[in-house]
Amino acid sequence: MTTEQFFELALKHHQDERLDEAARLYSAFLDINPEHAHALHLLGVLFSQQGDVARAEKNILKAIRLDPLVAVFHNNLGHILLQEGRGEEAVASFSRAVELDPAYLDAFRNLSACLLSEGNMEQAVIALTRAFALAPEDGVLANDLANLYKDLGFFAEAEALYVQALARKPNDLTILYNQALLYFTQTPASAWEDLCEKLLKFDAWSALYLYEWQVRRCIGAWLCGKKQNLKSFLGAAEETFLALGQTEDKNVQNMRAYQKYLMALVQKGTQMPEVIDAPELALVGDSHVLSYAGQSVTWGGKVYKTVPYLVMGAKAWHMAKDGQSHYKKALQNILKGLGHSVPCLLFFGEIDCRYGEGLLVYQKKQGGDLSDIAARTVQGYVKAVSEMLEGSDRVFAFANVPAPNLAFFHQQIESFSQEDAVQLQRVVTLFNEVLEKEASGKIIDFYGLTKESESSCHIDTHHLFPSVLGRALQR
Fold it and tell me: What is the 8-class DSSP label of residue 474?
């Protein structure tokens, strides 16, 4: 058997996933041909498949030193660096791969995904656009690129790409789902009931998608004060949720949190939103605004009716982050759509300060001083809102973050320690202190009110009873 036949046999074992035998043959071949770059590269790929990233990196780097102009070597090195959590170096490797081979579709895909994981969405779009140019008939690529445009807030571009994706993959549920999310992003939550009814007429949705449409329909019914519809819709959502069984799907868990929140509002005798003949007070923000729908409140000696504008899942961090996003775009569109005389309260920041997510998790992963992280987030948030309102004479104020419901955490989460409680209180305090300073005192003080009477204010883990808004406005 010639040495080349020996190499071909190793490759055949590798392709057939007989990895141990392939590794033995590659190693024996390299004993004879120690500077065979392709064999070194393939042995590195094999080690990566076996989870031995250190040996994988060593072999592929040796292959690159021997033959630095082979694009696939750099692409696969990028994969290994990602496994090691070295995102910036992986970006450099994938970039080198596409530089060497401008028609390397998979490397462009990998570069885009890596840039996205590193938080560089704009460059990720550029890389994926290059990939799509190489494969314009690829419906999956069109969908992925549409998702990026949607996340960046370029809704028209996203819609055009979803249409292209569906032309290539008709009735693909993933693409249809992503397109529907685009519609929700552009549609006021008060109109979600009608949008959901249209979506629910399509009977091919899986239970995961069906459940989300049902919960969003509940949100729309709540905001419109449709009590009978809401009870029926909550029941339908509950049936679907129970049929799903145990699932770790994060989106299902998020929708479940919304469903339970609305159930708490209904079950605890909360008055449904009403139609009130008074000037509008816009409440713009995360899920907290739902509690206060359709109320008559007094602020600054004037009576208003409250009208919530939900930006689902939005954090202060999303507003503070450089560049455009669909969260910022949604907020911009809401503020632009309000009449100039409509006063506005902004409710962002509570999700940033939650146990198990937001600023505490960011600090744990990235390190740094918590007070600096909180300060940068709040300063960026206030700056972004101020820029959106620049030139406007609109009256506005920021709702600060309520005191955490520590009683719930101690009762419901066995692992929740006293140290966790201290950290949770600290992040809320830091956030609110910076917000007070940056907003020049334009604050609605939910923190002070809930700190004084924590248990009587919370309707669930995070949210407050509707009556709390009126009390906070009078402080």
Answer: T
How far is the C-alpha of 161 from the C-alpha of 157, rounded, in Å? 6
If one counts the domains in the chain, the total is 3
pTM of the model: 0.89
Distance CA 109, CA 142 (A): 12
Q: What is the pLDDT of residues 99-136, one digit of tens each?
A: 999 999 999 999 999 999 998 999 999 999 999 999 99
Asked if the structure places residue 176 within a domain, the reply is no
**317: in domain:** yes
Residue 5 has pLDDT above 90, yes or no: no
360 shares a domain with 253: no
State phi, psi for 85 to the nearest 5 degrees.
Answer: 75, 20
- The last residue of one of the domains, among 232, 267, 302, is 267
Contact assessment for residue 175 and residue 169, using Cβ atoms and an 8 Å cutoff: yes
Which backbone phi and psi does 326 adopt, to 5 degrees? -70, -25
- Give the Cα-Cα-Cα angle 429, 435, 437 (nearest 5 degrees): 105
Q: Which domain holds residue 438?
A: 280-473
> What are the residue ranges of helices labelled H in 439-466?
446-452, 454-457
Q: Which amino acid is at 438?
A: E
Using CA atoms, how far apart are residues 454 and 452, in angstroms rounded to an integer? 6
- pLDDT tens-digit readout, 280-321: 999 999 999 999 999 999 999 999 999 999 999 999 999 999
Following DSSP, what letter does each residue of 120-160 receive, concatenated?
A: -HHHHHHHHHHHHHH-TT-HHHHHHHHHHHHHHT-HHHHHH
- Angle CA 248–249–253, to nearest 5: 90
Give the orientation angle of helix 250-267 with respect to helix 207-223, to 10 degrees: 30
